[in-house]
Amino acid sequence: MNTKAMDKLLSGALDGELTPGQRAQVEQWLANHPDAVAQQEQWARVGDLLREPLNPPDPEMEWQAIRRTIRSQAPAADAVAAETPVFSWRMAWAAAMLGLVSLGLYLIAGFQLHQGTLMAHGQSGAPAEVEWAESGVPGATMMIFADQETGMTVIWMDVEQNGNNDTKELEGS
Amino acid sequence: MKTKWLAGCLWLLLAIAAPAADQIHALMIEASNEPAVIDRRLEKVEYKLRRVFGFPYYHFVAEQTVMAPADGQVTVPLANGHRLILSGKGLRVTVQWFKNDEILLTTKVSLNKGSPVVLGGVPHGDGTLIVALTAQ
């Protein structure tokens, strides 16, 4: 049998069109010709490819798939939003702290403003306290008194009253 | 994150609430019967002095502002050889009034802000020297 006739038989075997006698001939040929086995396998792969149905992508089907994906993910997003309330404990804590700080600043600023206003108007707080006072000028007398109206505390050294020479020394200096 | 935020708030509060360092202002004035022009440097204290003392006129001589002593001694140079030495801590100070090397007056006072302490009675010319100490 020549090669051309055997090719026809090999092709027929792939298509299942051989008689039992022809199939026996083909099997015997394949047993003696390994290259024919390789050729038949190659034809079989080509035939499989040709028999596969052509399925071009359907745009509508693609869009439906995308819509299904979006719908399947949407509930998950809603669930996440539901688990994260707008006014969470963290935000409540931050708001409380902010309010506390604001109140503190308001009170401090108010106190400082009040103090500044008092001093600007010449009103004083508690008068100064004098623990003791002494004169370094011999014979001078000391007077200590607080004037409530002005808030001044006066420590007065009365030198002239004594009329001693220390007064002249001071004046001459 | 929460801790950093809280620390920042506390720092801000403390920075605002922290008192500034105390200062002591010394104003030297000559009280006399000699007429003087109105001096704006005395406007915060002259009307008070006029209420307390019998002098009709007050002349500005010198002024200094120093930091309150922090457990130490601070010298306040004035004019004509006069100076004060403040020793102590903060606004509780011992005040020594010197004329050159001669000590004229010593006192220990606790100053309060806005309440002046007036040291005076030192004869000077036809008038009298006064030093008003005010904590600021």
Residue share in helices of chain B?
10-25%
Whole-number tally of structural domains of chain B: 1
Uncertain segments of chain A are 161-173
N-to-C SSE series of chain B?
Answer: HEHEEEEEEE
Alpha-beta classification of chain B:
alpha+beta
Low-confidence stretches of chain B: none
- Spatial strand order of the main sheet of chain B: 2-1-8-7
Q: What Rg of chain A do the Cα atoms give? A: 58 Å
Q: How do the SSEs of chain A run, as a string of H and E?
A: HHHHHEEEH
Name the biggest interface.
A-B, 48 and 44 residues
In whole angstroms, how far apart are the ends of chain B? 40 Å
Number of strands of chain B: 8
Q: Helix segment count of chain A?
A: 6
Using only C-alpha atoms, the radius of gyration of chain B works out to 19 Å
> How does the major sheet of chain A shape up?
2 strands, antiparallel
Hey, roughly how much beta strand do the residues of chain A contain?
Answer: 5-15%
Main sheet characteristics of chain B: 4 strands, antiparallel
Question: What does the model show?
Answer:
The complex is a heterodimer of chains A (173) and B (136). Chain A is α+β, with helices and mostly antiparallel strands and 173 residues long. Among the domains of chain A are: 3-51, no CATH class; 126-173, no CATH class. Helix content of chain A is 63%, strand content 12%. Chain A contains six helices and three strands. Chain A has helices at 3-15, 20-32, 34-51, 59-83, 89-120, 165-172; strands spanning 129-135, 141-147, 152-158. Chain A has a two-stranded antiparallel ribbon. Chain B has 136 residues and is α+β, with helices and mostly antiparallel strands. Chain B has one domain. Helix content of chain B is 17%, strand content 51%. Chain B is built from two helices and eight strands. Chain B has helices at 2-17, 46-52; strands at 23-32, 57-67, 72-77, 82-89, 92-99, 102-110, 117-124, 127-135. The chains are: A alpha+beta (173), B alpha+beta (136). At the A-B interface, helix 5, strand 1, strand 3 and helix 6 of A face helix 1, helix 2, strand 6 and strand 7 of B.
